[in-house]
Amino acid sequence: MAMTHYMELLASNQPWNLLIFMAVPVICAETLAITELIILFTRNFHGTARKINKVTGIFAGIYFLGIFLYLFTTAVIPITAGGEWRGVADVIAVGFYLLGIIPLGGIALLELGLLGKKRTQEQELALHATFVGIFLVIAHVAMIFGMLDPHIFISDLSQGMPVDM
Fold first, then answer.
1. Residue 115: is its pLDDT beyond 90?
2. Which ranges form a coiled coil (predicted)?
3. What is the distance between the alpha carbons of residues 87 and 153, in angstroms, rounded to a whole number?
4. 73-108 per-position pLDDT tens digit
C-alpha cells in the first residue's frame, strides 16, 4: 500500500519528524484547548491558565509558520513542479495540514495584539476559541486523509471494480 506524502513525512526520520511535525503542534493545540476551557469556565483572564494559553499561542503560531515555510518550499513546490502528487487524498492531507497556519497564525497575532485590538476580553476569548476549534478540525482532516491509501480516489474504469475490498 502506498502512503501519502503527509504519512511518509511522519514515518521518515523516526522519531524526529513525528515529534517535529505532529507531536509539537498537537501538544500545543491540546494545551490551548484545555487552557481555553479553564479560562472559559473560570472567567479568570489573568491566572496561570491564561498565561500558559498566551505563551503557547504565540509559540504555536511562530513554530507552525516555520513548518509551513519549510514544507512549502522543500515539499509542496518540488512535488507540484514534478507532478508527483499521489492523488486527491495526498493533496487534501498536505493541503489541510498546511492550512493549520491560518488558525495558529491567527492565535499568535491575537496574542501579540496585532489582531482584534478593539475586542473585549470575552470577544477575544471567543475568537481565540474559534481559532483553536478550526485548527483541530483542519488537523483531523489532514490526519484522516493522510492515513488513506493515496490512490483510493483514483479510478481506472478500464480495469473494472477492485476485487480486493
1. yes
2. none
3. 7
4. 999 999 999 999 999 999 999 999 999 999 999 999
Q: Tens digit of pLDDT for each residue in 25-44? A: 999 999 999 999 999 999 99
Through-space distance between the first and last CA atoms of the chain, rounded to whole angstroms: 13
Cell of 32: 490551548
Longest distance between any two alpha carbons in the chain, whole Å: 64
DSSP track, 82-129: TT----HHHHHHHHHHHHTHHHHHHHHHHHTTSS-TT--HHHHHHHHH
**Burial state string for 62-77 with b = 16 or more CB within 10 A and e = fewer than 16:** ebbeebbeebeeebbe
- Which residue has cell 509559540? 59
